[in-house]
């Protein structure tokens, strides 16, 4: 294909050739183009402000009520709401959206927790200089980083093991748990009893807590960037949540990802999964703690833990089941 000055080597048109139009067409289309871009800039500011309001509402509701409110008032899922919340979380109040030529889909992509802050800042700088930013550009940049990371890792280890993704849907849960039980049938049994203890600190939303020197608990929304950035690569992520979740980044962080609905988490299930998909000393991620004993079980199995839950009450109960003192830390 022969390229002109308005195309890239991939055939992507970067600038429309207005010279092919009549003067009347040119005037009309350029006027509309300017008005559309102005509205898009206002839309970016609106998205940030909606995210701000959503965070405010969420802070006033009990655990689980936010999703009910979203559905009743807007017909939105959590995923939809978090497009707005991520923009608010990723961009400061001083961001001048009036100067940014950026599509809404690109804004959501930049604000995603899995987008590195360096990439976000790079494209933000370009946008502030007047460059047009597209969703495709950002995706290409992220793919380049991902491919580079894969090459680096393959050079470091001679025989890299393939990444296994274990996502357990409802219809196969019983068969999967039977397989877990069969594999664990001859393993030594450990007591499920936990020592109840009162923590010496008040659990507050938005704060990090340390226990046993290396394990951390975040009391807050684990879908946000602040949790993603602090979570290391892990052997296992055990996500006990609803079908409509907003933690796609777990696929990138964990070698094994097990997803269960809360109603399917029976006694012994979390211990079975942790034992099968990780070993002593491995790092595991627990982004929800619907069962108070999950934290204690993971600690008893001698895993390194990065855990979180948006509910202070559930965090408090998990720590009490853990039976260890915790301290609030800054991360």
Q: Would you give an account of this structure?
A:
With 331 residues, the chain is α/β, with parallel strands linked by helices. The chain has 2 domains: 18-155, no CATH class; 170-329, no CATH class. The protein has 12 helices and 9 strands. The strands form 2 sheets. The chain has a 7-stranded mixed beta sheet. A two-stranded parallel sheet has the order 1-2. A hairpin with a 3-residue loop joins strand 3 (207-211) and strand 4. Helix 1 (23-60) packs across helix 3 (78-90) and helix 11 (294-300) packs parallel to helix 12. It is elongated and about 75 Å long.
How many helices does DSSP assign? 12
Output the structural class. Answer: alpha/beta
How much helicity do the residues have? 40-55%
Strands across the major sheet, in which order? 6-5-7-8-4-3-9
Span between termini? 52 Å
The average pLDDT value, as a whole number, equals 77
Low-confidence stretches: 1-13, 150-171, 189-199
Tell me the radius of gyration.
24 Å
Overall shape: elongated
**What is the number of E strands?**
9
Number of domains: 2
What is the quaternary state of this protein? single chain
Approximate strand percentage: 5-15%
Order of helices and strands: HHHEHHEHHEEHEHEHEHEHE
Taking the sheet with the most strands, its summary is: 7 strands, mixed
């Amino acid at each position: 294909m022969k390229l002109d000055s308005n195309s890239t080597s991939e055939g992507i048109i970067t600038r429309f050739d207005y010279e092919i139009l009549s003067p009347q067409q040119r005037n009309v289309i350029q006027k509309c183009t300017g008005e559309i871009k102005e509205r898009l800039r206002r839309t970016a500011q609106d998205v940030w402000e909606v995210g701000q309001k959503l965070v405010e509402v969420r802070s006033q509701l009990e655990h689980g009520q936010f999703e009910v409110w979203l559905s009743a008032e807007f017909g939105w899922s959590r995923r939809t709401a978090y497009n707005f919340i991520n923009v608010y979380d990723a961009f400061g109040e001083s961001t001048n959206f009036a100067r940014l030529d950026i599509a809404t889909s690109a804004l959501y992509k930049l604000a995603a927790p899995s987008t590195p802050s360096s990439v976000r800042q790079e494209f933000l700088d370009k946008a502030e200089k007047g460059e047009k930013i597209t969703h495709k550009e950002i995706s290409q940049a992220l793919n380049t980083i991902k491919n580079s990371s894969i090459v680096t890792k393959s050079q470091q280890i001679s025989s890299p093991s393939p990444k296994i993704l274990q996502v357990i849907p409802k219809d196969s849960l019983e068969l999967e748990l039977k397989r877990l039980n069969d594999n664990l049938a001859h393993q030594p049994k450990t007591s499920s009893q936990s020592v109840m203890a009162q923590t010496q600190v008040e659990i507050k939303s938005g704060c990090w807590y340390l226990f046993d020197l290396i394990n951390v608990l975040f009391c807050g929304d684990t879908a946000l960037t602040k949790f993603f950035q602090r979570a290391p690569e892990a052997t296992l992520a055990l996500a006990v949540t609803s079908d409509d979740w907003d933690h796609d980044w777990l696929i990138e962080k964990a070698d094994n990802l097990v997803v269960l609905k809360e109603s399917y988490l029976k006694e012994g299930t979390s211990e079975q999964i942790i034992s099968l998909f990780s070993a002593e000393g491995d790092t595991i991620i627990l982004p929800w703690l619907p069962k108070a004993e999950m934290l204690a079980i993971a600690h008893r199995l001698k895993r390194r833990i990065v855990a979180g839950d948006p509910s202070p009450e559930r965090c408090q109960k998990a720590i009490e089941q853990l039976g260890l003192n915790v301290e609030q830390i800054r991360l």
